[in-house]
Amino acid sequence: MHLIVALILAAGEGSRMGAPKATLEIDGERLVDRAVSIFREAGCAEIFVVLGAWVGEVVGATTIVNEDWEEGIGSSLRVGLAHISSLLEVEAVLVSLVDLPGLTAQAAEKILLEPGELVIGTYEGRPGHPVKFSRVHWQGIMARATGDSGARNYLANASDVHYVELGGLADGKDVDTREDLEAFLQD
């Protein structure tokens, strides 16, 4: 059995939202708790959440604090992968963002079960989340993860990326503003 864990990036301050997105609630549930539930239901054995602007308890997950969260998502990805790298039994990580309220366990499970070392979920052909990275790629991803690009710089030069359409299973739109959140709630 190959152990694949989830890594949820939730360190940002949500400047356009006016509050850290991890703490925003939909139907009384924080986005961070919603994300943990999705990955638990999808079959991830262990879930890690990178926090920063807001730090608090996240039930069902191991929290990792990114002291340099202001550097952007690349910093959170580096901190999360570095922490998980110390767990020798982990062979791959399923990465997602906290601000994807339309993500479903079915979409996460599809990426989780898809063979391949670099697997990216797409929505109408556009790359999105979750993404799966096998351990052999972690050092390269960490070396290139800067600012708000996350793994984008690394993936741009990778030849073995496998894309999986998730549009029928989930909504890949993130919520960056109160208007985005209202639009999601209206759907």
Description:
The protein has 187 residues and is α/β, with parallel strands linked by helices. The chain has one domain: Spore Coat Polysaccharide Biosynthesis Protein SpsA, Chain A. The chain is built from 6 helices and 9 strands. Helix 1 packs across helix 3. The radius of gyration is 15 Å and the shape is globular. The mean pLDDT is 91.
Itemize the secondary structure elements and their pairings:
Layout: E1 3-10, E2 25-26, E3 29-30, H1 31-42, E4 47-51, E5 62-65, H2 73-85, E6 90-97, H3 105-113, E7 118-123, E8 126-134, H4 138-144, H5 152-156, E9 161-165, H6 178-186
Parallel strand pairs: 1-4, 1-6, 4-5, 7-9
Antiparallel strand pairs: 2-3, 6-8, 7-8
Brief overview:
The chain is of the alpha/beta class and 187 residues long. It is 29% helix and 26% strand.
Which characteristics define this entry?
187 residues; alpha/beta; Spore Coat Polysaccharide Biosynthesis Protein SpsA, Chain A; seven-stranded mixed beta sheet; two-stranded antiparallel ribbon; 6 helices; 9 strands; 29% helix; globular
Q: Specify the helix fraction band.
A: 25-40%
Q: Major β-sheet, in short?
A: 7 strands, mixed
Give the DSSP E fraction (strand runs of 2 or more residues). 25-35%
CATH level-1 class: Alpha Beta
- When the domains are counted, the total is 1
